[in-house]
Every structure is written in structure tokens, then in C-alpha cells.
Design brief:
Blueprint: H1 19-25, H2 30-49, H3 59-90, H4 95-106, H5 126-129, H6 132-157, H7 160-180, E1 189-195, H8 206-231, E2 237-239, H9 254-266, E3 270-278, E4 283-292, E5 296-302, E6 341-343, E7 346-352, H10 359-367, E8 372-377, H11 387-402, E9 406-410, E10 416-418, E11 424-427, E12 434-440, H12 448-452, H13 455-481
Parallel strand pairs: 1-2, 2-3, 7-8, 8-9
Antiparallel strand pairs: 1-12, 3-4, 4-5, 6-7, 9-10, 10-11
Length: 482
């Protein structure tokens, strides 16, 4: 199962990876199934997230990180342990409901961490992810687990009814995808993406400030020139990555003037990540601003879902003492407004960094009117192994769920343009200084997911809870009678 989450082309392993596990946990007592689940969850997360050890952070923080990862892997293990224990109580066919519900819980709240949700393993298979337009990524998880259960039953019993059920369950998403994926022919917009490839450890030093600005401006000019040559017009938008500008760009000054002059010169709006300082409340935000030619900063967005322990200490707004803890990250304040930007033909919203991994946030943006999602990030901390693609692939599902395209701009990569069906139109390489220029059709499609959101995993939790209560009641009643 872990191999299906790495950038080595083995994502199909998730279709049958749980079968050996099912042979174990269905043959043992509930207590042993619980222990097995803890071992599975620990090793699955260890083999999938080992790259976190190589994060480019301070040495003293790495010691804390090591112990934190042990806790994280045990955290995963407990979820699967509890899930398998419940399954042993209420039956094997409940496993898709149980795991889907547990994944939903794990991804909810201020400490939510939906990484390694089984459904994300299929992000590179457009035909299999179209079903997310109905019930989201958690629904793909339920489908994958159901396929594994059916395959297990087929192998164990060799009964033809399970073969028929397996063929139907595997084919339905494909049939739905073929019917759904019908791209309308429309006049596309031109989007430019700048990937400056700046070392995140050096970006905010005074020596790198000028180099950073020169690279951003130079790549933007090259992108604009390429657009004029290929399409005879300037890009409708040029996107820079998260905290691309190593200064407060909202403050008047020489650097703000240079970006304004760039937008005027190339006649294209520039959308960039930048830290934002609120004088009134003396608070710093991880933000993004839209700079229009001739008028400067038109709108801004302040990141609403901060990275726990990286951008703030969880729950520090409730306990002042937590603000004194320093784990080497920033001390940002979460924003409150879900901004929808308007620029010419474009109506879009911004997902900063790991905001792209939370389905409900993207859904709210689209409900509010966004017809395009822009994900700006700085994955330079992740290194060159699996982290950047795992983070990148989760953003792909947001397009299918919400029926809108997505543009992703990463400082060191992976940057990409994805249509509303989750198909990658263009993708950059890691740790490469480059720009992307791509035509993109903006034609939003209303999806079922936009109306029901994460109703499926919530329903899974309700059904599992009801079945568990009934089972415990029967056990209690049987004990009482004896």
C-alpha cells in the first residue's frame, strides 16, 4: 500500500494491497486485530512518510522532529487498530465504511492530517478519480477498500458471485468517467506560472533578496514574451509561489514599485504569495495579493488553515502560554475571509500550501464563486524524494470534486496546470528554474460533491456507530441471558 503513494508508477497496487492483511485480521480475535492494525498503520505511515526525516530544518529542531514522527506513526497505527477492532465486531463488509470514517476523522479539525487517505493513491489515474465528483476523495477510499474485500472473498471462497461483483464494482467508475469526461470547446485563457527555485533557507536573507526579485521578474518577462510569440497576447495572469517576495509587499517602497512596474510593463496581472503585516492588530499573516496593471494591489487573501507546529502552535488562540513555544516555524495568525479574486475573465481563489489537502476548504471557495483554484506553495523543505509529489497529487483531487481547473505554482516544484477532470496538462520538474505557459479552459461543471460535501464519510460514521451499538447491545443481552 505504501508503494502506491510513491512517484514510481505503482499506484495500482492499492487495488489489492490490503488482501494479505485481510487474511490476517479476519482469522484472529478482536484484540489481535487491534494489535495488527497498530503495526500496519505504523509501518504504512513509516514507509510512506519517511522523507519527513530529510526536511530542511534546523538541527536542534530535527531532534524534536524525530520524536514527533514516532508519535505520528503511532497515531496512524491507533486509527487502523481501532478500525480493525470495530470491523471484527460488526463484520468484514463494514471495513470500507469503517476506514473511510476513520480517515475523515483524522483529516478534520485544527490538527487534521488527511495525508495518506487511500483515495489519493489514485490521483494519477483520471479515469478512476472521476467518481470524486460525486462523493469526494473519501469515496474513492471506500471504493478501493471494497475492491480489496471483494478480491479477498473471491480468493478465499472461489465463488463466482464475488467475481461478478468485483467486475461490476471495478467497471462502474470507468463507465462513469467515460460519460463525464467531455471537455467543451471554449476560448481558453492563458496562465503563466513562475517557478524561481530559490533555496527556502536563504530566501529571507538580505543577500538573496535582490537575487530573488531579479529571478522572479526575469522569468515573468520571459513568460510574457513567450505568450506574445505563441498566442499574440499577454497572459491573463502570472502566478508566483508562496511567500515569493521575501518582504512585506503590501508596504510601499522600492520592491513594491518594481512589481507594480512589471505588471504595467507586461500588461498582465501578477498574483503572488507574500507575508502580510496588520499594523492595527500587530499580527503577521501568510498571504497572497493580486496586483493589477495600472492600479497595484487590488485584493488580498490571508491563509485560513495554518500548518500545525510549522506556522503556529495549535490552539494557541485559546491558551496564551502556547504562544511562547518555539518549534522553529513561523508565528502566523489565521485569516478569516475566503477571498474570491476577480481579474478580467478570471474568478479564482487561492489555496496556500497544504490548504490544498482539505476538500471542504476548496468546496467553500467554489460555492462562493471561484471558477479556478490557484495553489501556491513552497515545497523546497520537502527535498527530492516523495513529499513533493504526495503534496502535489492531493491538489489534483480538488479539481474533480469541484468541477473547476487548478493552477499550482511551487517555488522549487512541482508546478502544474490541471483541467477540471484532474488531467495534468503541463507539469514542471523538481528543483528547476523555469516558467510554465499554458492555455486553460475555464468552464466550471456543477458536481454532486459541491452540494453534499463530505456527506459520505459522515454517513459512514453514523452507520458504523449504529451497527456497533446494536452489536454491543446484542452481546450485553446475550451475556445477561446466560
Amino acid at each position: 500500500m505504501s508503494l502506491s503513494f510513491h512517484p514510481i508508477g505503482l499506484h495500482f497496487l492499492a487495488w489489492f494491497a490490503l488482501v494479505p492483511l485481510l487474511f490476517v485480521i479476519t482469522e484472529v480475535k478482536p484484540a489481535k486485530a487491534f494489535k495488527t492494525g497498530i503495526i500496519f498503520g505504523f509501518l504504512f505511515s513509516l514507509f510512506s512518510l519517511f522523507w519527513l526525516v530529510f526536511l530542511q530544518i534546523e538541527t536542534n529542531i530535527k531532534i524534536l522532529l524525530f520524536f514527533g514522527l514516532i508519535i505520528l506513526f503511532l497515531y496512524f497505527g491507533i486509527y487502523y487498530g481501532v478500525g480493525f477492532l470495530i470491523m471484527r465486531k460488526i463484520g468484514l463488509w463494514s471495513l470500507p465504511l469503517v476506514i473511510t470514517g476513520m480517515e475523515f476523522i483524522r483529516g478534520t479539525g485544527e490538527l487534521g492530517f488527511p495525508w495518506l487517505v487511500f483515495g489519493y493513491s489514485q490521483a494519477r489515474y483520471p479515469l478512476f478519480i472521476q467518481q470524486a465528483s460525486i462523493y469526494g476523495v473519501y469515496g474513492i477510499s471506500a471504493w478501493l477498500i471494497l475492491i480489496n474485500v471483494m478480491l479477498y472473498k473471491l480468493i478465499k471462497t472461489k465463488m463466482s458471485k464475488y467475481l461478478i461483483a468485483l467486475i461490476i464494482a471495478f467497471s462502474l467508475p470507468l463507465v462513469y468517467a467515460v460519460v463525464r469526461m467531455n471537455e467543451p470547446v471554449e476560448q481558453p485563457v492563458i496562465i503563466g506560472i513562475v517557478q524561481p527555485n530559490i533555496d527556502p533557507n536563504l530566501k529571507f536573507t538580505r543577500a538573496m533578496r535582490e537575487i530573488t526579485f531579479q529571478r522572479l521578474i526575469q522569468l515573468s518577462e520571459q513568460c510574457s514574451e513567450a505568450s506574445l510569440e505563441r498566442h499574440g497576447r499577454s497572459p491573463q495572469l502570472i502566478v508566483w509561489p508562496e511567500t515569493a517576495t521575501p518582504i512585506f509587499l503590501t508596504f510601499p517602497g522600492a520592491y513594491q514599485d518594481r512589481v507594480y512596474a512589471l505588471a504595467d510593463r507586461i500588461r498582465s496581472p501578477v498574483f503572488t504569495g507574500t507575508p502580510i503585516y496588520d499594523h492595527k492588530n500587530r499580527e503577521i499573516y501568510n498571504g497572497a495579493v493580486l496586483i493589477e496593471p495600472g492600479s497595484g494591489i487590488a485584493q488580498e487573501y490571508r491563509k485560513t488553515h495554518l500548518v500545525p507546529f510549522g506556522e503556529h502552535i495549535p490552539f494557541d488562540q485559546y491558551l496564551a502560554i502556547l504562544k511562547k513555544i518555539d518549534v522553529g516555524g513561523g508565528d502566523y495568525t489565521p485569516g478569516n475571509n475566503l477571498t474570491v479574486f476577480n481579474s478580467g475573465q478570471l474568478t479564482f481563489s487561492c489555496l496556500i500550501c497544504f490548504e490544498s489537502i482539505f476538500p471542504e476548504l476548496s468546496r467553500k471557495f467554489v460555492i462562493n464563486g471561484a471558477e479556478l483554484l490557484i495553489n501556491i506553495t513552497n515545497d523546497g523543505w520537502f527535498g527530492k524524494i516523495s513529499g513533493p509529489q504526495q503534496h502535489n497529487d492531493m491538489a489534483i483531487l480538488r479539481t474533480v470534486e469541484n468541477g473547476v481547473p487548478l493552477v499550482r505554482c511551487a517555488n522549487t516544484g512541482i508546478s502544474m496546470v490541471v483541467d477540471k477532470y484532474g488531467r495534468i496538462l503541463l507539469e514542471s520538474r523538481l528543483f528547476t528554474e523555469t516558467f510554465i505557459l499554458q492555455q486553460l479552459s475555464i468552464s466550471p461543471a456543477k458536481t454532486v460533491f459541491l452540494y453534499i460535501g463530505n456527506a459520505l464519510p459522515a454517513l459512514c460514521l453514523f452507520i458504523v456507530t449504529l451497527l456497533l451499538i446494536l452489536r454491543l447491545y446484542r452481546d450485553w443481552k446475550g451475556t445477561k441471558q446466560h
